[in-house]
Specification:
The structure is a homotetramer.
Chain A (H helix, E strand, L loop, with lengths): L1 H6 L8 H19 L7 H6 L3 H23 L3 H15 L3
Helix pairs in contact in A: 2-4
Protein name (chains A, B, C, D): NTP pyrophosphatase (Non-canonical NTP hydrolase)
Keywords (chains A, B, C, D): Hydrolase
GO molecular function (chains A, B, C, D): nucleoside triphosphate diphosphatase activity
Chain lengths: 94, 94, 94, 94
């Protein structure tokens, strides 16, 4: 993502607030794929084609902006997720 | 909105969680209009046509789903906003 | 909202992208009130106290930031909503 | 995430629409950390403690719900992201 952005000279657009709005936009597109699905059938419907590919594309967009934001602010996203899972395990004992 | 929904037999789609995802979708579309604008120029750029009309349309979509959600859960949105402004005025004294 | 903001000297914070992130934050708080409710019971549960008051407060926050954003970019929100309803009525004939 | 959810008997809560609202909630919390930061200083401010740790925690929450949603609907998120990066590289030639 860092190389992709640099090669296109897009770094000047990638301040944190802009990336967060882009992330919000992609979450919105993902939400639109699910909004009118019946809650009980949503898992099955989203797991079948052609919806599954579209869902995967929007989820990828969310992930890519999240990874880009992490890079810009210097967060190690994988490490943060591991730590959060440990905190969650302590907070909510099985 | 209530009549519009009833005339199209869309009431069965308008449970709160679905409306909230639709609201999220519209906020996402609004965010996409602003995401790459330079922060310092965003107000002026969004105030000029043709962007202003598009911004107005997306803001209208957010408002319409918010009003519809309020109707579905029985919230008086105008009254809730008045009360919240009073609470804000107490919380943040000028 | 305009007076409230001016009296607190908060106008410098209220550029469109910041207001949009604040709107996203409030939509997120509203979503959190509904996220784990069973879809079929969400309307009834959110219509009962104490949840209804909390839902009203979060919906008010969304509305207030939306109104503030409209003011900042010069959108007549009520007029935009009326026009959007007319467009919707043409697009989706009953 | 799958084991964590199963051990707490939370699978019944993790339908796609509920997970999407939870994701929206976490994106909202992340947005709240940035909303009033000056755009030009946001990167530096968010890269310093104590904000960086809080940003990392909220980003982790977004990632964890995204990963959980991917598991529920059967999307290979890493593969989807790789494919999306290839599509982006074709769409936006450097």
């Amino acid at each position: 993502m860092r190389a992709f952005t640099a090669e296109r000279d897009w770094e000047r657009f990638h301040d944190p607030k802009s990336l967060l709005l882009a992330l919000t936009g992609e979450v919105g597109e993902l939400a639109e794929l699910f909004q009118w699905l019946p809650a009980d059938d949503a898992r099955e419907l989203a797991g079948d084609e052609p919806l599954r590919t579209r869902v995967g594309e929007e989820m990828a967009d969310v992930l890519l902006y999240l990874v880009r934001l992490a890079d810009v602010v210097g967060v190690d996203l994988a490490e943060a997720a591991r730590r959060k899972m440990e905190l969650n395990a302590e907070k909510h004992r099985a």
